[in-house]
């Protein structure tokens, strides 16, 4: 692959701002440079412009979490390390997230310590990067950001990519605590379906999946033998949380989107989809942007729809294996 020409560390807007300040003196200019290059934004998101201005900062670690094979290898944000969703952030034998011990090894190899700001991004609408943010939250990693718009926006803006795999000095990262309360289980979903919990279920799949018209999106391999949704759930497809360029809508607009189905943060929310990746994206919007109490059900429909004896809502009446 031909390595793309690397853009300057500062964006044109930043450079123009620095030039305007030059009349105050060289010392002021370079103080401004330092501030522009190191200030980490508040909140859970960083923009593509900010990241482009800060790629060379030693306390920033960019991590790609993509699901499509070869995406990282063909070209990635300069300096980014690769965490495979399939083999790094998930257990490779049983259906579970990566173990605490393996997660510590992963971050240690990537050179992450308690002073590192981690920026996650990925392909496929940032679904799997948001999954990464959720796993990082379970393992109580601080200073984690999501690149707003992900890989798609970075590439659309013709920002630099290269195929060099970086090497960082190994650390000894230790997980301080495990936040198991961020993860919903089958029993949590079933309690809502049976009216034994005040939590609200949010199904973020497509309307056709929710209604039971289809079992899963075309081409996917993880399936359930029952169609439909968990009784009591409301449906807000994940895409309603983003703008056309893939960035998240404003907090004000997000409140309107979810408030329209009765989700205002007054009660705990459980997000789910098919395997937990799309619902991680909505978990991020609700929890990290709006500050609502939200847990993600990563078992999602492939667990619930395959479970024996649980109630199912199937408005379309689609029957498995029917001719």
Q: Tell me, rounded to a whole number, the average pLDDT.
A: 89
Q: Structurally, how many domains make up the residues?
A: 2
The beta-strand count equals: 9
Q: Estimate the helix proportion, in percent.
A: 25-40%
Termini distance? 48 Å
Q: For the record, what is the CATH homologous superfamily label of the largest domain?
A: Rhodanese-like domain
Assign an overall shape. Answer: globular
- SSE topology string: HHEHEHEHEHEHHEHEHEHEH
Strand order of the largest sheet: 1-5-4-2-3
CATH topology of the largest domain: Oxidized Rhodanese, domain 1
Uncertain segments of ≥5 residues (pLDDT<50)? 1-10, 12-35
Rg: 21 Å
CATH class of the largest domain: Alpha Beta
Number of separate helices: 12
- Beta-strand content bin: 5-15%
Sheet of most strands: 5 strands, parallel
CATH architecture of the largest domain: 3-Layer(aba) Sandwich
**Secondary-structure class:** alpha/beta
Characterization of this structure:
The protein has 323 residues and is an alpha/beta fold. The chain folds into 2 domains: 45-178, 3-Layer(aba) Sandwich (Oxidized Rhodanese, domain 1); 181-305, Oxidized Rhodanese, domain 1 (3-Layer(aba) Sandwich). It is built from 12 helices and 9 strands. The protein has helices at 12-20, 26-38, 48-54, 71-74, 100-109, 127-138, 150-156, 186-193, 207-211, 251-259, 277-289, 300-304, and strands at residues 45-46, 60-64, 81-82, 117-121, 144-147, 200-203, 234-235, 269-272, 294-296. It has a 5-stranded parallel beta sheet with strand order 1-5-4-2-3. The protein has a 4-stranded parallel beta sheet with strand order 7-6-8-9, with helices on both faces. Strand 6 (200-203), helix 9 and strand 7 (234-235) form a beta-alpha-beta unit. It comes from Lampropedia hyalina DSM 16112. One of its GO terms (molecular function) is thiosulfate-cyanide sulfurtransferase activity. InterPro entries: Rhodanese-like_dom, Rhodanese-like_dom_sf, Thiosulfate_sulfurtransferase, Thiosulphate_STrfase_CS. Keywords: Pyruvate, Repeat, Transferase.
